[in-house]
Amino acid sequence: MLMLLEQLLNGLQYSALLFLLSAGLTLVFGIMNVINLTHGSFYMVGAFCAAAAVAKTGSFLAAMLAALVGAGLYGLVIELLVIRHLYRRDHLDQVLATLGLALFTDELVSVLFGRSPPFMSIPPALAGSVLVLPGLAYPVMRLAFIAAGALVAVGLWWLISRTRVGMLVRAGADDGEMVDALGVNVQRLFTLIFSLGALLCGFAGVMAAPLLAVQIGMGERILITTFVVIVVGGVGSVRGALVGSLLIGMTDALGRAFIPTLTSMVLPPQLSDPLSASLVSASIYILMAIVLLFKPRGLVPARH
Predict the structure, then answer these.
(1) For the residues 210-234, what does the mean pLDDT come to?
(2) Buried (b) or exposed (e) across 109-128, using 16+ Cβ within 10 A?
(3) CA distance 22 to 243
(4) Which CA distances in Å does 161 have to 153, 167, 175, 183, 225?
(5) Which of 142, 209, 255, 268 could form a disulfide with 47 if both were Cys (CB 3.0 to 4.6 A apart)?
(6) Which among 211, 65, 213 has a CA at the least distance from the CA of 141?
(7) Does pTM surpass 0.90?
(8) Percentage of the chain with pLDDT > 70?
């Protein structure tokens, strides 16, 4: 039981990371109709900016500010210089352009920060563990990550459902041309959405940096999983991103913990070991295939 609870908490922490990355991506894809392969690069930029700020100041707050400003400004520059010229282009052009931007960002980060992976320790305020249940101590940093993901989810719900900006975002998703005809600067709205997505990636980067390896290309490694999340949840839906993140995060965590044990119970080691490794790697894609079989638009598609 304790192992199950620990894996559920691990799944929640991974789900929080996926939600921070997928919320912005699903808005950009669903509203702006842009396939942005540079999205994971903002996560990497945030992590590197955070690690550099900690090395200079020793302050986690300075690292968070550096990650948000660095990723947000880089996302703004990318949107102004490149992305806004891709809105009316087909998806192949978008894929090629943003893939090139992702490769360019990898090289830019290596030039600015060096190729040696920086180390970012857990801040003292979030170090150590707390006793969740008798016999189960869980790291404070991971619990803070879960809480941060929950706060961002509530904040995005409030922004999209209760503010004028959110109203314009929803209207732009339904009929951007009509919103533009009513006098709303849709171009500025798209810039805001894109920058918000980059900002969320930067926040994910600073929260993940003390827990995961900060290295060149770290954004590309998680980008595919992020696309799986928005496909499962529903393209263009923040609620879908939340549901998809929880499902994918839990599937990954529980699969890594229990699939090897279950296969070893029914198969000899020479068969169970490679089979379990394959099933663990493919578990989220199997889940995606099952969801698409019954819900082609995702579990919680955007309302149109």
Answers:
(1) 92
(2) beeebeeeebebebbeebee
(3) 11
(4) 12, 7, 17, 21, 27
(5) 209
(6) 211
(7) yes
(8) 98
